[in-house]
Fold this sequence. Notes:
Strand content of chain A: 15-25%
CATH superfamily of the largest domain in chain A: 4-hydroxy-3-methylbut-2-enyl diphosphate reductase, catalytic domain
CATH architecture of the largest domain in chain A: 3-Layer(aba) Sandwich
Strand order of the largest sheet of chain A: 1-12-10-11
Oligomer: homodimer
Largest sheet of chain A: 4 strands, parallel
CATH topology of the largest domain in chain A: Cobalt-precorrin-4 Transmethylase, domain 1
Number of domains of chain A: 3
Largest interface: A-B, 15 and 15 residues
Amino acid sequence: MKVTVARPTGLCFGVRRAISELENALENVGKIYGLGSPIHNPQEIERLEKLGLVVVKDPADIPPGQPAFIRAHGVSPEVRASLLRRTDRIVDGTCPFVRNVQEKAALLRQEGYRLVIVGDASHPEVQGIMGYAGEGARVVGNASEISPDARNGKIGLVCQTTQKVSLLEKVVRGLLTHTEELRVFNTICGATLERQQAVMDLAPRVDGMIVIGGKNSANTGKLVEISREAGVSTLWIEHYEELDGGWVREKENIGIAAGASTPEWLIRQLISTLESARSPRGMD
Amino acid sequence: MKVTVARPTGLCFGVRRAISELENALENVGKIYGLGSPIHNPQEIERLEKLGLVVVKDPADIPPGQPAFIRAHGVSPEVRASLLRRTDRIVDGTCPFVRNVQEKAALLRQEGYRLVIVGDASHPEVQGIMGYAGEGARVVGNASEISPDARNGKIGLVCQTTQKVSLLEKVVRGLLTHTEELRVFNTICGATLERQQAVMDLAPRVDGMIVIGGKNSANTGKLVEISREAGVSTLWIEHYEELDGGWVREKENIGIAAGASTPEWLIRQLISTLESARSPRGMD
């Protein structure tokens, strides 16, 4: 049996970097208050909590002067100011790509553009960006949401980093005919799309695919869907312990893909387990 | 018989304005050298030549110090400089909408954008704009003309004023996914589209349509096509003398539309002729 991991897969650069900064800081100070969950994976949160992470919902929940952590999604200037009123010990895990969107939004606002943010209004990344976008800014998650009055004048557009290009294209098209000037920063980072493409590329070369990631994770579900559409027998698991020994033994070439919030160590555990299954008594 | 003229139809604001400035100047000075044909209509050129217009192809053909006329299409800064070396008596008929495109191109160039001009590279308006667009600028008349190396970096986009929105949309779409920043000035002026829409709106209300305009005029041909597609019996003439009396007498409601280079007086002649046809002995 051969095991091949899709490349790239799992955590994107920004989340990986944020978690690594958090780990380093925890090693130094022992306890950090994280504003919002840094990663949507219960096993990973459990591990980080053991290292000293305390997840809080509001800056007011942080004891004055205690170290605080900003996750990869970033925060608005207002939230940053609230944090700074509680403590001057901030570990900033904001993804550099998200930071770029915030800076572009601030630049467009400063130069007199009315902001349109292509994205999901309920997503923390978008809520952070909104804080930089100024009055009159609006989030558009669907091309049909563009009202006629939103189309006049000088419009500046940025995107949530994980949005689909197809939505960006639709929104731009909806604005184009009615807008005197449209200045677009395509801030989609491509990590999501690259991970989907990696599954598409790997699927024809394997006779079984294991997708590891939360059952409530939309992006993990999308990877499962892509693999099944490619006609490959596909297992969706959250943890190596859910593996089906019979299914594994039938396969000659197994592919592995991981959701964007699946930490590296869960993938490594899975690979070790599969490798042990190569031995005659493995996985019984 | 009732006669209804499509609204708007015929000359657009910019050409009408340029011809009117030329007429005023001819009245004052008697003779003007026009750089390029100010309007693509032989009857109108003949009329203007009688008033003192001399059409030349090159600034070098203008006798030093003699008055010169810039048509609605505008000219590049280089051509303007050549003109100024010949004479300081320039009547500038550049359409204000075209002037706006030139200014936007110059602004984008100054702010470090690589220019893309959506339009027809052989059109005088586009050749003029190119002069403001700087090195590395390119004209795109077809979305398939976007080469991969044209898509990187910071791109500024303007359009020939008479282009179709659908081409602008296609070019923007082709650039969007690969461009960090795309700043679009939608400089399409809408005059062409409004005139086409006016024929669509009028067609269901008439039982015959007369389209007056040059047989070599693409935009006039388009109006004829739209009218015929609407199922209306349609005559394409260059001059009222080509009217078919039998065709006219059969109609109860006649619509009139004119190409973008058909002067007002040719339309008025046509209307007078149709009105005289109402009398029993008209048009025999």
